[in-house]
Design a protein that fits this description.
By secondary structure, the chain is mainly alpha-helical. The protein has two domains: 241 residues, no CATH class; 53 residues, no CATH class. Helices cover 59% and strands 3% of the residues. A two-stranded antiparallel ribbon has the order 1-2. The protein is globular and about 70 Å long. The two termini are 27 Å apart.
């Protein structure tokens, strides 16, 4: 509570900055990546689809990076407590993680409000397409507009021989069997290339938001483990506090926050960068958050399972290293 209050002491807007800051980040990164650099997102996704998708990643990453940066120096900044009194030093990384998670939770209503607005009041491009397709299908299955669904190879551009669902990659099907009754837009796939799953779908709000506490708990375990290791290691090597900023920046740009993960799996890269996603726990976590917050879907069982295992392992290793160095803290400080 002290840390949360101290964040905005003397500020006229107080906790409202937790809402404004992610939005400012979203505007800046959208301008840089989407407009100046022209990053390629899904052909079917509009600017609103991309914005709400990026916002989730920004909110989660801000909490994670803030905790790592602050935890690295937490023992040095509280040297008087550790040197002069019997103080449980492990509380320091843990309270910073908790404070960041609470701050992150304050930003979630902005995301949920965006989902409500873009999903039902001012629909995104993908929501509009899904609604139009479902309406046509309910009237007559064979009357799907050709600009939405490509069903016959004879009507495709030169060099294109098939069509694939831009969500699951299922080929040449009027109704996607992997998606039940909801229709997905079918996009042409150039001959010789494999269908690439889309990172974007129409947003939807539902009961899956109740899954958020589990994701936040796993995030807290993972972040606290890294924080404890960095806090203790910074006393052994004081350069850690300077290196962590560079490390966090590299990790951020290696995580699909401002660009779709399909960039890594694009055919032109020939699979050279697939390992970046396969070994990136924050990608797994952010993808789970997006499924829950944006699409009202259960998180990927593979991503969730892998992240849970890694979170527990990281916490065990970080806390073990922290405990073994605990007796040396007064001397190192």
């Amino acid at each position: 509570m002290r840390d949360l209050k101290a964040r905005y002491v003397g500020s006229s807007m107080g906790f409202f900055w937790s809402v404004i800051f992610p939005i400012i980040n979203l505007v800046v990164y959208s301008f840089v990546f989407n407009i100046l650099l022209g990053s390629r997102f899904d052909d079917a996704a509009g600017i609103k689809d991309v914005a709400i998708w990026m916002l989730v990643g920004i909110v989660v990453w801000n909490a994670f990076s803030e905790t790592l940066t602050r935890s690295t120096n937490c023992l040095v900044e509280n040297a008087n407590l550790i040197q002069k009194v019997v103080f449980p030093a492990g509380v320091l990384p843990a309270y910073l993680t908790t404070s960041s998670l609470v701050n992150m939770a304050i930003g979630f209503p902005v995301v949920l409000a965006g989902v409500l607005y873009f999903g039902y009041i001012n629909p995104t491009q993908l929501n509009q397409q899904a609604s139009e397709i479902e309406e046509v299908v309910s009237m007559e299955q064979t009357a799907i507009p050709p600009e939405m669904l490509v069903l016959d190879a004879s009507g495709l551009p030169p060099g294109v021989r098939t069509a694939a669902c831009n969500y699951c990659g299922y080929e040449e099907h009027l109704v996607c069997p992997n998606d039940g009754t909801a229709m997905r837009v079918l996009l042409p796939v150039v001959e010789g290339t494999a269908p690439v799953k889309s990172s974007f779908r129409g947003v939807n709000l539902g009961a899956m938001v109740l899954f958020l506490p589990i994701l936040m708990l796993l995030q807290g375990i993972f972040t606290t483990g890294i924080g404890m290791f960095l806090a203790a290691f910074n006393l052994v090597l004081r350069d850690t506090a300077h290196l962590i900023g560079v490390f966090v920046m590299v990790w951020m740009f290696a995580t699909p926050i401002f660009y779709p993960p399909t960039i890594f799996t694009a055919a032109k890269h020939e699979g050279r960068f697939d390992m970046i996603l396969e070994l990136n726990p924050m990608f797994w976590l952010i993808d789970c958050y997006r499924e829950v917050l944006l699409y009202n879907s259960f998180p990927s069982a593979i991503f969730l399972g892998k992240f849970a295992v890694v979170a527990v392992l990281v916490f065990y290793l970080g806390s073990t290293f922290f405990s073994r160095q605990r007796d040396r803290f007064p001397d190192l400080l």
